[in-house]
Amino acid sequence: MKIKKKIVIPAVLSAGSVAAAGGLSAYLASFVAHGKRQTLEEACEWQKSQYDLSFYEDLGKSDYTVDSYDGYTLHVQLCRNPAGGRKYVIISHGYTDNRYGAVKYMRTYLEAGYHCIIYDLRGHGLNEPDYCTYSVREAQDLYTLIQDTRARYGLDILLGLHGESLGGATTCAVLKYEQNLAFAVSDCGFADISNVLKVAMKRMHVPGFMLYPTSGMSRLLYGFTYREMQPVKAIEGNRVPVLFLHGEEDHFIVPDNSRRLQEKTAGYSELHLIPGAGHAKSVLTEPQLYDTYVKNFLSRVENGTLA
Q1: pTM
Q2: Where are the beta strands (DSSP E) in 80-182?
Q3: Which partner for 143 in 93, 133, 177, 227 could form a disulfide, CB atoms 3.0-4.6 Å apart?
Q4: Is residue 7 pLDDT above 60, yes or no?
């Protein structure tokens, strides 16, 4: 009986540990995929507290929807440049944000003569609730939007991309599908989601090894592991000119992510770190410097003078 006790008790404890680990991994996978999203009203109010939004309010706009590759409906808004022209940029916002998160980048592009297309990423804003795949399905959505933009506004337009955080990662990931672009700007995008989740889990005091069962649970619940969420692989062989921007004090998606992305792209690229800027705060921390980097890059793209 003593021997049986020594065998049975550890077995019970082991089963309990496995169940606890499974429950934790399911919770974490759900938490990662379904972070609380901001409403349009909440995002708009936050933007207004950070800078003057009146330029956006005065623009002519058109709202429409685009059905993505799998039938999912994306809500899109064209913000017209008063000067007209044939230059367009699609701006992708960050995780839990919505189209209003893209507005703070628009002034630079408007002054450079671009019409701005902003939209709600899958599961955000006015779109139906959905889980996040950290650039996998989001890149296919953006590819669909690129195709729609050319069909809607002309095959001869000059078209570029700009993205922040998840939007920056998505901007890099879509280059796997689309090379007919004038440029791409990636602001604080991640190279792979796993390194970001490790930072987040450390802050939550969750053991680092839990990343692996959580990734497996993500596969069971949503059909995707974290190993598939790697823009750094999607950007390999890319020839579209890319401007990488990253806050020097970003401790969430650390600047090394942009360095890794730059190392993998095959075409022209620049990387600029913004002093004193935290995550997704570069354009707010150093607006003039940010504006200069983007406009200089656009000028060289348009004039064909990239080194």
Answers
A1: 0.93
A2: 87-92, 115-119, 158-164
A3: 177
A4: no
